[in-house]
């Protein structure tokens, strides 16, 4: 879980610096909510993967598939909630969300593959 917190802190610093230096046209005002959401999803995925590694290595694939489905559903609910509330700057919101989704997915794949190599 510590790498996810560090990764989120790094992204928060990058977003904060970008906001301070006038890149507000590229950042949606709700970027902080998005970071908190992705940190929460990362925590959930980390806990599910720990359970998958802990009990039986054969259960790893179902747990991994469950995390993919859970992430997809949670992301759809998050975006749907904000779009339902009539968030301003819909295109910017979705672009920022997708960028963070790709960053977090790549990071989680890297952490997961590192853990798999260590476990073999």
Automatic annotation (TrEMBL):
<feature type="transmembrane region" description="Helical">
    <location>
        <begin position="30"/>
        <end position="49"/>
    </location>
</feature>
<feature type="transmembrane region" description="Helical">
    <location>
        <begin position="61"/>
        <end position="84"/>
    </location>
</feature>
<protein>
    <submittedName>
        <fullName>Uncharacterized protein</fullName>
    </submittedName>
</protein>
<keyword id="KW-0472">Membrane</keyword>
<keyword id="KW-0812">Transmembrane</keyword>
<feature type="transmembrane region" description="Helical">
    <location>
        <begin position="90"/>
        <end position="112"/>
    </location>
</feature>
<keyword id="KW-1133">Transmembrane helix</keyword>
């Amino acid at each position: 879980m510590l790498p996810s917190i560090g990764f989120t802190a790094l992204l928060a610093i990058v977003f904060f610096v970008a906001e301070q230096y006038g890149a507000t046209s590229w950042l949606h005002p709700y970027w902080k909510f998005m970071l908190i959401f992705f940190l929460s999803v990362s925590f959930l995925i980390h806990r599910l993967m720990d359970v998958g590694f802990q009990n039986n290595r054969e259960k790893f694939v179902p747990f991994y598939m469950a995390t993919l489905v859970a992430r997809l559903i949670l992301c759809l609910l998050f975006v749907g909630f904000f779009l339902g509330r009539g968030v301003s700057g819909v295109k910017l919101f979705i672009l920022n969300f997708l960028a963070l989704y790709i960053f977090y997915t790549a990071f989680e794949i890297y952490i997961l593959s590192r853990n798999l190599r260590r476990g073999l």
